[in-house]
Design brief:
This protein is α/β, with parallel strands linked by helices. The chain folds into two domains: 111 residues, no CATH class; 235 residues, Spore Coat Polysaccharide Biosynthesis Protein SpsA, Chain A, CATH 3.90.550.10. It is built from 14 helices and eleven strands. It has an eight-stranded mixed beta sheet, with helices on both faces. Strands 9-10-11 form a three-stranded antiparallel beta sheet, covered by helices on one side. Helix 7 packs parallel to helix 10, helix 7 packs across helix 13 and helix 13 crosses helix 14. It is globular, with a radius of gyration of 22 Å. It starts with a helix and ends with a strand. 40% of the residues are buried.
Length: 385
C-alpha cells in the first residue's frame, strides 16, 4: 500500500518537471539576443484580411493598419475579403476606405462554395488580388501599433526565412470570462508554445499574424491545399517549415479584441481548439495530461491526504504557476497584470482541465455561424438535423 502511494506521488510530481521546462524555455527565449536585421528593409507588402461578421471595435482594429510607420502609405496595401455584400462588416470597411483615401485599400469577395474552411477560401481570393510578393496575413480582430509592419516583416530579410509569427494578447471589457481567457493564453497556451520552440523549433503560426511571401505559400501548394483543413494558421507555419524554410517566432505582441461576456461564450471556443488539436496530434494531446498540475495536486492529496502533502505539492504548484504567469505575461510580453490575476490562475487551470477532458468526447465544432465535424483530419460541414 505504501508502494502504491509513493508511486502515485511520484507520477503527481511530473507536472513540476514540465513547469521547470517552461521557466527555462521562457527565460531562454526572452533573454536571447535579437537577430540583426538589415537596416531599412521595407519591401512592398500586401496585408490580407479575411473578414466574416463584425468584431468588437472593428473600425479601430482596421484603422490601426492604416497608421503604420512604414514610409509612404503607398509602400503597402490592405486587401479585405468578405463573403458577400450583406456582411455587417461592409459599412465599416467602406468607412475606413473613405477615412484613409491616401492608402491602397482593396475590397474583394469570395465564395466558400467547395471549401469547408471559409477563411481559407477568402485567403485564396486575397492571394490572387494581392499585388506584392511579401504578404502579412492577420485576423479581423487584431489591433496593432505603428511599428507593427516594420517589426514583423524584418526577419524575412534573412536568407531562408519563410514566415514570421508573433504573440498576441487578448483584450476586452474585463469580464470574468475574458480575464480567464487572457490568463489561459499567457500562463498555459504560451507556456506550451515556448516549450515547443525549445524542443522542436517553430513549426506553427498564429492567425493573428503570419508574415510570409507568395513563393513560400506556393511551395506547399498554395492556400488551396488547406481549404478543407482545420487550424489553417498552424498548418501554414508547419508546411512552410517542412519545405525547408525557417519560421521565426517574434517577440512582438499584437492585441486582439475579445468578446466573452460569460464563461458560456469562452468554453466553446477553447473546446473547439482542443478538439482540433486532438485530431491533429492525438498522442501529444493526450500527453497534456501531465501538464495539468492542479489535477495531479488533487491526485496526490487523494493518495496521501495530509498537511505535508498539501504544503509540498500545493505550495510548489502555486509557486510554479505564479512564476510562469509573471515570466511570460509580465516580464516577457510586458502585459499589465493585477495581483488578482495571479490569484485566479488556479481558476483558469481548473477550467482548462475541464475543457481538455471534454475534448475527448467531441468530434464536432462550431465556428461563427457554421457547424462542422472532423473526419480523417479534414473539416466537413455538419449535416443539419
Amino acid at each position: 500500500m505504501i508502494f502504491f502511494r509513493d508511486a502515485i506521488l511520484t507520477v503527481a510530481a511530473l507536472p513540476f518537471i514540465y513547469y521547470l521546462l517552461v521557466l527555462f524555455s521562457g527565460l531562454r527565449f526572452f533573454l536571447s539576443s535579437r537577430r540583426s536585421r538589415p537596416a531599412g528593409f521595407q519591401p512592398p507588402v500586401s496585408i490580407l484580411k479575411p473578414v466574416r461578421g463584425l468584431d468588437p471595435e472593428a473600425y479601430e482594429n482596421f484603422a490601426s493598419f492604416c497608421r503604420q510607420d512604414y514610409g509612404s502609405p503607398r509602400n503597402y496595401e490592405i486587401v479585405f475579403c468578405l463573403g458577400s455584400d450583406t456582411d455587417p462588416a461592409l459599412p465599416v470597411i467602406e468607412r475606413v476606405m473613405r477615412d484613409f483615401p491616401e492608402h491602397q485599400i482593396q475590397l474583394v469577395y469570395a465564395s466558400s462554395e467547395g471549401a469547408a474552411n471559409d477563411k481559407v477560401a477568402k485567403l485564396v481570393r486575397l492571394n490572387e488580388a494581392a499585388r506584392f510578393e511579401h504578404l502579412v496575413l492577420c485576423d479581423s480582430d487584431v489591433r496593432v501599433k505603428p511599428d507593427y509592419l516594420r517589426s514583423v516583416v524584418a526577419p524575412l530579410a534573412e536568407p531562408g526565412c519563410g514566415a514570421v509569427t508573433c504573440f498576441y494578447a487578448p483584450e476586452g471589457t474585463g469580464s470574468l470570462a475574458e480575464r480567464l481567457h487572457r490568463l489561459g493564453m499567457l500562463a498555459d497556451f504560451y507556456a506550451g508554445i515556448l516549450v515547443a520552440w525549445l524542443l522542436d523549433g517553430v513549426k506553427f503560426a498564429f492567425g493573428t499574424t503570419i508574415a510570409t511571401t507568395k513563393s513560400a505559400v506556393a511551395s506547399f501548394g498554395g492556400f488551396e491545399a488547406l481549404q478543407n483543413r482545420p487550424a489553417d494558421d498552424l498548418l501554414i507555419g508547419r508546411l512552410i517549415g517542412e519545405r525547408g524554410y525557417d519560421v521565426v517566432l517574434s517577440r512582438y505582441t499584437v492585441n486582439t479584441r475579445e468578446d466573452y461576456p460569460e464563461i458560456g461564450d469562452l468554453f466553446p471556443k477553447r473546446l473547439r481548439w482542443m478538439v482540433v488539436m486532438r485530431h491533429m496530434r492525438p498522442w501529444g494531446h493526450f500527453g497534456l495530461l501531465f501538464t495539468h498540475g492542479i489535477f495531479w495536486l488533487f491526485v496526490a492529496l487523494l493518495a496521501d491526504p495530509s498537511w505535508k502533502t498539501l504544503e509540498i505539492y500545493g505550495g510548489a504548484y502555486l509557486a510554479a504557476r505564479v512564476a510562469i504567469l509573471w515570466l511570460i505575461g509580465r516580464w516577457g510580453l510586458q502585459q499589465p497584470l493585477r495581483a488578482s490575476d495571479y490569484a485566479m490562475v488556479a481558476a483558469w487551470d481548473a477550467l482548462g482541465f475541464t475543457i481538455w477532458t471534454s475534448s475527448f468526447f467531441r468530434n464536432n465544432l462550431r465556428w461563427r455561424q457554421g457547424a462542422y465535424c472532423l473526419r480523417d483530419g479534414k473539416l466537413v460541414p455538419a449535416e443539419p438535423k
